[in-house]
Amino acid sequence: MGVGSVHFEVYIRKTPRSSWTLEMASENRAAAISCAEELMKEGRIAAAKVSKETLDEETREFQTVTIFKAGAHEGGAKKTRAAEAVEPLCVTPQDLYTIHARERIGRLLEAWLERNHATPFELLHRPDLVEQLEASGTDLQHAVQTIAVPEALARGMSVHELIRTFHGLVERAIDRLLADFRRGALPDVDAEGFAAAAQRLSHEPERGYLLGAGVAAAIAPAHGWTDKVMRLLDLAEAAPAAGPARHLALATLAQPLAEILGCKPGLEEILGKGLDLGGHLAAMTRLAAADAVDVLIRVEPSVAKVMPTLAPSAARLARWLADEAFIEVRAAIGQRILRDLSGPRRLRRNDAVAEIEVLRALAMSLTAAAGQLLPLEDVQAAFSTRSKMLVTGEFVEAYLGQDKTSREEARALVWLTENVIGAANKRVAGRWLAAVVASLKFEKELRNGPDSAAVRLAALADLQRSAGRCGLVEEDYRPIQAKLGDLGGLVEADSRLVAQLVQAKAPAVHRLTLLLRLACGETAPLGPAADRARSEAMRLARHEDTRAELSSAPEQVETVRDLIQQAGLAA
After folding, report:
1. Stretch 19-32: mean pLDDT
2. Statement to judge: residues 355 and 411 lie in one domain
3. Residues 420 and 488 reside in one and the same domain
4. Domain extent at residue 432
5. What is the pLDDT of residues 76-86, one digit of tens each?
6. Separation CA 196–CA 238 (nearest Å)
7. pTM score, two decimals?
């Protein structure tokens, strides 16, 4: 362990409730402990401790071990947390209309909102829904209590005091909405026209609240979530053409649209029920990044195979989501895609091959849409997390199945390695591939298989090239390629293929061409078999009969020259 790899840190706590602060650091253990003891004797601090910090040379992280402690207990500061603020987060009815407040309302009243097929946006803007919630009693009371307990603990307030505060806030918000409704202040966008209402309200101080009430009333008669979305899109088409009024109109419509697409029942109804997680993610991706996915579908058959066709209503929504006004809605869908990708559920529960196919299509689609939909680094992080699941023993066992030959298993593992991302995941996939290639079963199948030696050597050559192209680092793929090369040497030695080609009754140029294809790794893996073929090819190339044949067939000279160069480069 090098100099400076271990040092000692002295921490102090000035009062029992304060946090630890660093007092000094030293490479001398005795000096650090002595300092802590002296500080305690002076009586100016409540506690002191000394920790040993050891640097891990491999991870470059410190490992901490406490070797001395005196004074107040560790848990003193945690028992009484300082109040974060005297006032709760929401103090006026207007505070309830912010995006964070609406998200909190959606979580607290999730069951009630689902039963009434409503969103937090509608609850805050529809007098009839407010009256229903107020009449239910228990739902509202439970929501207030649920939020009051952690808020009171965080702010050092009485739970009952905070419950009274929240009840007062809710009552003021309800009274405000009902009073505006009774005096006719809430617009009727069906009667007035959405564009006219947006234009009229665009200069009002409470324009978002007032137009929101009109939008909520317009979608209230809808039968189901899809109908609500279609009504919102009808309003979007009727919005003002430009200016502040259009911005107000589309920003208001984006709020309920995001909430409908953010709830599971709403999204399922729009995209279609009965989809597994892979199909659901593919449909969400096509919904949120329709332009990028449509381009990929035209040029990439694997994406076209996986991406479901959107229903007419969902396709209409996808076209509107491309509008800059709905960028937040699009981003919310993208974040949900990433959360589900990073989760533990299988994309295709009973089909491991199809799971890799859908993951590959999603990776191409989300990467193509990166920047417009999600940051590229977030996309890569989510797929790296999902890739970790693809290299577990359980998944690999399900993926390989029971009826594959060793050669088929190796090909399948190469494809798996190609489709996982992340250095650690690639390394694990490479180990699976190396284990199959090094197995006795693989060697027996390749040496004693029913195919001809030429076919088996060509298969090994193809596998050797694929191992170098599947994304493994050199130190991982080189041993695999070397093992395949050695096995190719055994197959060739068993069959004496090179000797047979040399002695075959065929034109010299034809034999030379076959030997050179073996030598350059085209029809045999690089290694002993290719080396033997290279040696015989060079001997045959110097023969006078071969040169005579080449001079009489100048069209073959260039092909032979290229193969000789490849064989020389491969040496």
Report:
1. 79
2. no
3. yes
4. 403-495
5. 444 444 444 44
6. 10
7. 0.71
